[in-house]
Task: inverse folding
């Protein structure tokens, strides 16, 4: 198999399987999670002012008082790489073209040099977050195989995409194929790992917020 | 006198090419191939003093586009004249001889220049049905290649078909077409892919061979690095528009009129290694992207099966077939599991026994 065949496989058969598994997994898990339901809470609501599901969705994105100082790497690093990732994935013109061809939706992109800069910042933030996870004994103790694995799954597409654009290490064709394959790996594992928070994060925040609000927990 | 006639420089002089023009040409050629300035002089000396090199050109499964490219589009430039000036001992399209005469010319050329001639091949080699899909004078291309190649000094696989199998090798490859390098393993082979390839690349390789007695530095696909070292995209004059995110969306929108990037219209420039963007075509007049069409990637292996010429490189190569089925299966699995969960919950509820105070005191 030469480079061109590898790239065509990645863009064709590989993508077909990856998107298939991704859709299967996402629908399966979403339906399963949201159909679980919960017993009706028969207690009288002790609604605290401002405590609700919707409020929690927003509130949990803001560091709790004193936490930013206590754990700056988690917050700043986390924010940086999440926003950086979103910019790289959704505002790079070739990616928009892919999304358009799959869904029909499109929007304007950003200049490629800007996305390039954001990719570097994202890579740096992800490395810092990883080093922090290794260095802090508590974080390391809490980390399981899945944490290291999902970090790698997320990191590889950013790194290989940036390397392809910069023509580093391998010819562009090969690196582009590897980049697409790494994204496919991410798509395959996303529904079955903690990466599924991409779909559930706001739903679960709303749920917890609603339960807490009912109990009158001050937010 | 005969000796003098045989020299390349004499042949050029006959056609009105001055020594100065010839020197300039060699210097340009040397710089194009990223050779030091002294190489230009060495090239000029080698070409001026050498006998016209014998070239045998065998056409296999091809469309004659490569021959057209070299003989027509560049005429009457120096590349064309140099091409005229080599001793082209066998080329079916161009030679006057035909039939048995032509075959005799081939035999004679091999005999006279054993181990010294350059063998140019355009077209892929059919291997299906023992090569019967493509025959010349009752012999298959496969047989002919195996017979002639051992006597050549070097082989030039001209065009994407000879270099990688090209269009005949495209799916479903009915003739089991392969490239020259798939058959011949023990000779120096230089691939000059392109559909057709750029004429100056051809003359550059010949000049290098004459001057240094060897083939130029090749990349891992057997192409001269000097011409195939960079991608079309990296040398494209429309590249700034790509970087700014300005793309033509159709072939007749404002973007297209303003000369914006053709990536979204399927340009394969980013994965295509060739010199079109710098050398251009028809004597430097223009090239595909300049004329408003994206690069097809014709100098890359299997370009024909690369997922469509008008699909952006980041788009799926084929329509997704599994997506709809997978979505239905996923939804069904989710529903099935949620029913199972509910049944489990119901069973737990049914099995629940009320604990009384008396039970605890037992």
Result:
């Amino acid at each position: 198999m030469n480079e061109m065949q590898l790239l065509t496989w990645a863009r064709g058969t590989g993508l077909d399987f990856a998107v298939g598994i991704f859709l299967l997994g996402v629908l399966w898990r979403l339906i399963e999670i949201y159909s679980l339901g919960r017993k009706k809470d028969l207690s009288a609501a002790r609604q605290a002012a401002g405590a609700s599901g919707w409020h929690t969705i927003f509130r949990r994105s803001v560091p709790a008082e004193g936490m930013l100082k206590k754990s700056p790497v988690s917050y700043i690093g986390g924010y940086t790489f999440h926003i950086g990732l979103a910019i790289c994935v959704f505002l790079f013109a070739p990616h928009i073209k892919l999304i358009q061809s799959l869904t029909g939706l499109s929007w304007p992109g950003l200049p490629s040099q800007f996305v390039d800069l954001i990719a570097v910042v994202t890579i740096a933030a992800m490395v810092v977050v990883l080093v922090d996870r290794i260095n802090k004994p508590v974080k390391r103790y809490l980390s399981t195989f899945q944490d290291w694995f999902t970090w790698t799954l997320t990191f590889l597409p950013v790194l290989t995409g940036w390397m392809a654009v910069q023509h580093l290490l391998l010819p562009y064709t090969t690196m582009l194929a590897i980049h697409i394959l790494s994204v496919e790996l991410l798509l395959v594992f996303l529904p079955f790992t903690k990466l599924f928070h991409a779909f559930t994060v706001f739903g679960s925040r709303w749920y917890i917020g609603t339960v807490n609000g009912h109990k009158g927990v001050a937010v | 006198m005969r000796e003098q006639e045989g020299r390349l420089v004499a042949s050029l002089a006959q056609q009105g090419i001055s020594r100065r023009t010839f020197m300039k040409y060699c210097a340009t050629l040397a710089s194009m191939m990223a050779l030091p300035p002294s190489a230009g002089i060495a090239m000029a000396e080698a070409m001026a003093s050498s006998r016209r090199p014998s070239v045998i050109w065998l056409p296999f499964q091809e469309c004659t586009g490569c021959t057209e490219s070299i003989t027509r589009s560049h005429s009457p430039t120096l590349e064309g004249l140099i091409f005229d000036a080599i001793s082209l001992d066998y080329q079916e399209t161009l030679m006057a001889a035909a039939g048995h005469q032509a075959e005799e010319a081939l035999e004679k050329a091999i005999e006279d220049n054993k181990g010294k001639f350059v063998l140019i091949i355009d077209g892929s080699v059919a291997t299906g049905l023992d090569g019967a899909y493509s025959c010349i004078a009752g012999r298959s291309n496969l047989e002919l290649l195996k017979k002639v190649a051992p006597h050549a000094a070097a082989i030039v696989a001209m065009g994407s078909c000879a270099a990688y199998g090209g269009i005949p090798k495209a799916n479903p490859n009915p003739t089991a077409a392969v490239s020259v390098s798939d058959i011949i393993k023990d000779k120096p082979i230089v691939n000059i892919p392109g559909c057709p390839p750029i004429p100056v690349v051809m003359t550059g390789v010949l000049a290098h061979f004459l001057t240094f007695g060897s083939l130029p530095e090749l990349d891992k696909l057997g192409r001269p690095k000097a011409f195939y070292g960079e991608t079309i995209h990296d040398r494209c004059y429309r590249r700034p528009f790509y970087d700014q995110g300005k793309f033509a969306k159709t072939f007749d929108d404002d973007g297209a009129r303003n000369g914006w990037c053709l990536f979204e219209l399927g340009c394969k420039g980013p994965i295509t290694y060739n010199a079109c963007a710098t050398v251009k075509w028809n004597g430097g007049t223009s090239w595909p992207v300049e004329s408003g069409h994206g690069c097809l990637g014709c100098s890359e292996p299997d370009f024909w099966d690369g997922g469509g010429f008008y699909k952006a490189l980041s788009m799926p190569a084929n329509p997704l077939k599994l997506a709809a089925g997978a979505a239905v299966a996923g939804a069904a699995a989710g529903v099935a599991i949620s029913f199972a969960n509910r049944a489990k919950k119901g069973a737990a509820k049914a099995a629940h026994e009320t604990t009384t105070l008396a039970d605890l005191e037992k």
About this structure: Chain A has one domain: 3-215. Residues 100 and 106 of chain A are 5 Å apart (CA to CA). Chain A has a mean pLDDT of 92. Chain A touches chain B through 45 residues (CB under 8 Å).
